UniProtKB/TrEMBL annotation, chains A, B:
<dbReference type="Pfam" id="PF14031">
    <property type="entry name" value="D-ser_dehydrat"/>
</dbReference>
<dbReference type="Pfam" id="PF01168">
    <property type="entry name" value="Ala_racemase_N"/>
</dbReference>
<dbReference type="GO" id="GO:0036088">
    <property type="term" value="P:D-serine catabolic process"/>
</dbReference>
<keyword id="KW-0456">Lyase</keyword>
<feature type="domain" description="D-serine dehydratase-like">
    <location>
        <begin position="254"/>
        <end position="366"/>
    </location>
</feature>
<comment type="similarity">
    <text>Belongs to the DSD1 family.</text>
</comment>
<dbReference type="InterPro" id="IPR001608">
    <property type="entry name" value="Ala_racemase_N"/>
</dbReference>
<dbReference type="InterPro" id="IPR051466">
    <property type="entry name" value="D-amino_acid_metab_enzyme"/>
</dbReference>
<dbReference type="InterPro" id="IPR042208">
    <property type="entry name" value="D-ser_dehydrat-like_sf"/>
</dbReference>
<keyword id="KW-0663">Pyridoxal phosphate</keyword>
<dbReference type="InterPro" id="IPR029066">
    <property type="entry name" value="PLP-binding_barrel"/>
</dbReference>
<dbReference type="GO" id="GO:0046872">
    <property type="term" value="F:metal ion binding"/>
</dbReference>
<keyword id="KW-0479">Metal-binding</keyword>
<dbReference type="InterPro" id="IPR026956">
    <property type="entry name" value="D-ser_dehydrat-like_dom"/>
</dbReference>
<protein>
    <submittedName>
        <fullName>Alanine racemase</fullName>
        <ecNumber>4.3.1.27</ecNumber>
    </submittedName>
</protein>
<dbReference type="GO" id="GO:0008721">
    <property type="term" value="F:D-serine ammonia-lyase activity"/>
</dbReference>
<keyword id="KW-0862">Zinc</keyword>
């Protein structure tokens, strides 16, 4: 299908940009001498993941058991479920392992570790479990020097479970925007996770894997001594938040939302689009960054960004395109000429993970302007 | 299935609350002597819509052609597509009408009206079109006294299309929070839409229907003289935004997200949930209201709100439950006792339309605690 024939709103992936992003990250990992395990929560799309694996990725990271089930069914068997497991989800995890999936679980507390051990004992099963380490205080995990790190390790190890490794995610990297700060956080992430592995090994627990990552720290890391693998997700498509952090340009962003102009409020300098928050998502991740893109950056169909314009407001199925400068909107009465009814635009999103989730499928666009559908799934 | 057996996160609908909300709105419409056309964009779920129709609704409102197609296939034939149509969508609209669907389109500008007329002429088809009226300046539509109102009416009328009515949506009601202000806006919405119909009729265009509505103005309206029907969507489930506006209590909110405690950061007073923004949505609709509920209001499994706690932060699959009072979080080290690993909670959402869209299905819960799955669809 040609771009002009796609009904709007639609989520477009620029295949050439995506392949460039994949090659960039995998090349950097190869240079650093570590394995790369992409986080597939960004796209939940087997076509994208096949491209990541073809470029050299080793296994995948998932955020839900549904992703694990879907990607295992599609032929991927090395899967890290990177959210501390709720004990009630263990039967689903066991079913996957019994089908042959090399599924690794994550915990960060003794209660869940004991629940895994008890469930494993009850069902004659041994789970591989990785321990989540907190290296930046932004969310979950055990700090490297905390006593409960060894408690969790021992509960698993002494009850027949395999401590496969330690993993951390320096999600606070999303709050930074200089190369120096990102490099420093990447080193903090590396050092903390390596230290946690060292403590476990000194306590007689093998802990072979040391897994770190977020897109900004992965790209900023200068050396990863002691690390065995890196995880990152959003790098595959990038977005406006990543642009503001400084790890990609607007021209690297591979996801856009195709939209049509359906109306105007000329007195206010508004063009109304058929892409509202249901298409763009409610993610306003750039609102606290140096450059606030509203609900997205409009571009021409050929991808050229329309400097000075943003999607400044959104209802469920209506987006408001206007001057980025609030003060000059009322002077923009030429909006009806510049953006006539029926004109199609591409909107770069704040956050590729949340915008993608609004769509059942991507339209993957080749350099000659043709597209194919790549399905994605949602739910848990 | 019993509530305790549902895997988390899950979207729950309390059927008793939903039926009460439906009866309240339909009863109010009956008292006012107007028809009621629910906006099904909130749930995109045929089971919910059947309950609305059973209570007396006449036809439905949709926000996408996919909704129109799905609900027509499920047996609903009186459908208002309440977004100004992009000319490129006319072939899908025509296909629906040729199948027998009584689909009504909406426009608010001469260009789109001319495109409908030209397309209808080209295909030997007559569309029923309603003209969108702007009664509060918040989004789309033509103001009642604007000259282009009659231009649009004449383009349609003189080219064989049927001007079925005028419609308006006072979406600025979401910014109010007093009964007086809502009643005043309901009257403004009514009067503006009735005036637009009067101008069209005086110009010789029949315009039989006068359609108004948003959940807050529908509930606040004291009289609707000249109006033939009302539209509203979120009233069926309600949410925290509607609570803050003052049109429902917490006990009326029929949608909640079932979540499990999966970790803690005791030093910070955090319990970590397996419901992040992928489950709650990124909607922060209460952030600009008098009571900011963060990403949601936690409740016990029986529905009792846990006063003083909110979901204060969210990543994709992690929610942070903490004291609503930021200053007292670090003193809440009893968080691990109060919210132990594995505990299940129900989180009331900011916005039922956006939270529901994150799930492929609802679990509809009966008063005795059993549930059945009600499917919903997404995409365009």
């Amino acid at each position: 299908m040609k771009l002009e024939q796609i009904d709007t709103p639609a989520a477009l992936i620029d295949i050439a940009r995506m392949q460039k992003n994949i090659a960039r990250m995998q090349g950097h990992m190869n240079t650093l001498g570590v394995a790369f395990r992409p986080h597939v929560k960004t796209t939940k799309c087997i076509d994208v993941v096949r491209a990541q694996i073809a470029a050299g990725a080793r296994g995948i990271t998932v955020s839900t058991l549904k992703e694990a089930e879907a990607f295992y069914a599609a032929g991927v068997d090395d899967i890290l479920y990177a959210v501390s497991i709720a004990p009630s989800k263990l039967p689903r995890a066991l079913a996957l392992r019994r089908q042959g999936c090399n599924l690794k679980l994550v915990v960060d507390n003794p209660t869940a570790a004991a629940a895994i051990a008890a469930f494993g004992d009850q069902h004659g099963a041994s789970f591989e479990v990785w321990i989540e380490v907190d290296t930046d205080g932004h969310r979950s995990g055990i700090t490297p020097e905390h006593e409960s790190l060894l408690d969790v390790g021992r509960i698993l190890h002494e009850n027949g479970m395999t401590v496969g490794g330690v993993m951390t995610h320096a999600g606070s990297s999303y709050e930074l925007d200089t190369a120096e700060a990102l490099a420093a956080l990447a080193e903090q992430e590396r050092a903390g996770c390596v230290r946690a592995a060292q403590r476990l090994r000194e306590a007689g627990i093998a802990c072979p894997e040391v897994s770190v990552g977020s897109t900004p720290t992965a790209l900023a890391a200068a050396q990863l001594e002691g690390v065995t693998e890196v995880r990152a997700g959003v790098y595959v498509l990038f977005d406006l938040v990543m642009h503001n952090i400084g790890v990609c340009s607007l021209e690297d962003i591979a996801l856009s939302v195709l939209a049509t102009v359906i109306g105007h409020q000329a007195d206010k300098g508004w063009a109304i689009l058929d892409a509202g928050w249901m298409a763009m998502s409610r993610d306003r991740g750039t609102s606290n960054q140096a450059h606030d893109f509203g609900y997205g950056q409009p571009c021409l169909l050929n991808g050229t960004p329309l400097a000075g314009y943003v999607v400044s407001g959104a209802n469920q199925e209506h987006g408001i395109l206007s001057s980025a400068d609030e003060g000059s909107r009322a002077d923009s009465q030429d909006i009806t000429q510049r953006f006539p009814i029926g004109m199609k635009l591409r909107i770069l999103p704040n956050h590729a993970c949340s915008t993608g989730a609004q769509f059942p499928e991507y339209h993957a666009v080749t350099p000659d302007g043709h597209s194919v559908q790549w399905m994605r799934f949602h739910g848990w």
